[in-house]
């Protein structure tokens, strides 16, 4: 056991300098599961809400107040920097991102212009306001990774099979790499805006990359995600890299450059850590679909996640993906308390 640090438990764990405390936050902790969120968002579209710094600050703080989580995540969306770069899109409630003119050709790709931090003034301002309000609680900045962003741009919206995206990737590799290079630049700029304004960690969401084979991931996607992570490396903040269904990609994802690898519920954290050579802290991985089960079941599963996480050189408790909109906030509150109260003991029992 290393000496306790003055740093936040979340940041210490990212850096593998934690004691036995288990930090916890939830992907999509801000959002429709919270009545106070539904109230302040009423009548304001998702994308408009992201451009209002006071509102962004309030929504980001809501789950921190309610749950006592160890980190805040910036309220925005992976599509916000694409819109700022001039791509016409909307986020449709209940559906997700919808692109006015999908990107399918070399000429389409050339329309995507580079983004500058100056084009994101509402991001800079919101992060500054937030950091002043948050005190010791660190703010996590985030961005979408090139593959996940490309999947929306090429499909034109959400997809089940990513068929158009994969077809472009394998049939026109030059166009694909040009697209992903541009998206990497945009993602890195979105992260830079957040980190230079005071975010103390970042998460790169490659939510849909688990649809790829390891060979395609390595050849067509990994270099672009690595580019984003490398660009942000100069700021010395911990980097978290997450995707859904990535069990077969974990070994490769570990090489992309992040300090922490996020894992979904399909693979236990001890197995995930083994696939990562026990070199990285892990984040996850309670199945969000279980949040509606009776509390004793949720509690047992929460304890099992903590026990499996003890195999890694650091464990940040989270869900395996985002909080579903219908979740009872009281359950998340109980999970945070359990992780904080019982986490150290469960870890010591395993070690
Ligand atoms: C794939 C993806 C998107 N957006 C994001 C991802 C990667 C994370 C993941 O895999 O879930 C990232 C994201 N989106 C949002 C956040 C805010 C911070 C947080 O996690 O609390 C974060 C980190 C707010 C949001 N982004 C969105 C909402 C819900 C819309 C609303 O409340 O009106 C929120 C709170 C909209 C959105 N935006 C996107 C989708 C699929 C949706 C859901 C559409 C729907 O079900 O209505 C694209």
Automatic annotation (TrEMBL):
Pfam families cross-referenced by the UniProt entry: URO-D
Amino acids binding substrate: 28-32, 77, 152, 207, 321
Domain Uroporphyrinogen decarboxylase (URO-D): 23-32, 140-156
Record-linked SUPFAM superfamilies: UROD/MetE-like (SSF51726)
Family according to the record: Belongs to the uroporphyrinogen decarboxylase family.
Annotated organism of origin: Microlunatus phosphovorus (strain ATCC 700054 / DSM 10555 / JCM 9379 / NBRC 101784 / NCIMB 13414 / VKM Ac-1990 / NM-1)
Record-level GO cellular component terms: cytosol
Entry protein name: Uroporphyrinogen decarboxylase
Record-level Gene Ontology MF annotations: uroporphyrinogen decarboxylase activity
Keyword Lyase set for record: yes
Pathway: Porphyrin-containing compound metabolism; protoporphyrin-IX biosynthesis; coproporphyrinogen-III from 5-aminolevulinate: step 4/4
């Amino acid at each position: 056991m290393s000496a306790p640090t003055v740093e936040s438990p979340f940041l210490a764990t990212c850096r593998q300098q934690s004691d036995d405390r288990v930090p916890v936050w939830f992907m999509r902790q801000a959002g429709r599961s919270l009545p106070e969120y539904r109230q302040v968002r009423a009548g304001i579209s998702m994308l408009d809400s992201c451009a209002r710094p006071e509102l962004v600050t309030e929504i980001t703080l809501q789950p921190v107040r309610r749950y006592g989580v160890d980190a805040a995540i910036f309220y925005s969306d992976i599509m916000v920097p694409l819109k700022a770069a001039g791509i016409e899109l909307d986020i449709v409630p209940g559906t997700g991102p919808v692109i006015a003119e999908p990107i399918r050709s070399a000429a389409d790709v050339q329309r995507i212009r580079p983004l500058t931090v100056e084009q994101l003034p509402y991001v800079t301002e919101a992060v500054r306001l937030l950091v002043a309000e948050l005190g010791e609680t660190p703010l996590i900045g985030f961005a979408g990774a090139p593959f996940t962003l490309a999947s929306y741009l090429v499909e034109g919206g959400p997809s089940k099979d990513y068929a158009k995206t994969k077809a472009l990737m394998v049939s026109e590799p030059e166009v694909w790499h040009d697209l992903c290079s541009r998206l990497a630049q945009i993602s890195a700029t979105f992260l830079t805006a957040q980190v230079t304004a005071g975010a103390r960690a970042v998460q790169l969401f490659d939510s849909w990359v688990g649809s790829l084979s390891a060979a395609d991931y390595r050849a067509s996607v990994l270099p672009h995600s690595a580019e984003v992570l490398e660009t942000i490396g100069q700021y010395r903040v911990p980097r978290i890299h997450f995707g859904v269904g990535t069990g077969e990609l974990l070994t490769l994802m570990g090489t992309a450059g992040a300090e922490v690898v996020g894992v979904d519920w399909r693979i236990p954290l001890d197995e995930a850590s083994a696939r990562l050579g026990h070199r990285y802290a892990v984040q996850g991985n309670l199945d969000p679909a279980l949040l509606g089960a009776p509390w004793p079941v949720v509690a047992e599963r929460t304890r099992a996640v903590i026990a499996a996480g003890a195999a890694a050189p650091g464990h940040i408790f989270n869900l395996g993906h985002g909080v579903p909109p219908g979740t009872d906030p009281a359950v998340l509150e109980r999970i945070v308390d359990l992780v904080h109260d019982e986490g150290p003991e469960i870890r010591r029992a395993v070690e």
